[in-house]
Amino acid sequence: MTDDSITSLEKIQNYLDLAGRSEAVRASIKIAEAEIEEMGKKLDGDVEGVLIVVHSTHGDRWLSVLQSRFDAIIRTQLHSHLQNKKCLEVMIVSGNSDALEEMMIAIHNTGKPDYVKFVRSR
Prior knowledge:
Elements: H1 3-15, H2 21-42, E1 46-55, H3 62-69, E2 74-81, E3 87-96, H4 97-109, E4 113-120
Antiparallel strand pairs: 1-3, 1-4, 2-3
């Protein structure tokens, strides 16, 4: 594990008041599994909502490349600079849930985002 991953794991351990890193890893896996399950239940057919991405790779065009690849479902997008040289990307998306899921997986697979969340409109 990288130093950043260990630091994050220790934050999780402290926040959840867990006895050790092993418990923090188990809790993290359960949280990630619940998030994936929730995402899988929500995404079916056509979807609309907001996709939020936070990253610290401002000079890297990885997200622009992905956005152009999935431009058929992105209705509008906003880029904003945050503290600590991080960037916030907000995308209004509308389209097939399979395309959105593929886009979210592609974003995660880069290993570059600090945070990715889709909020579906109701």
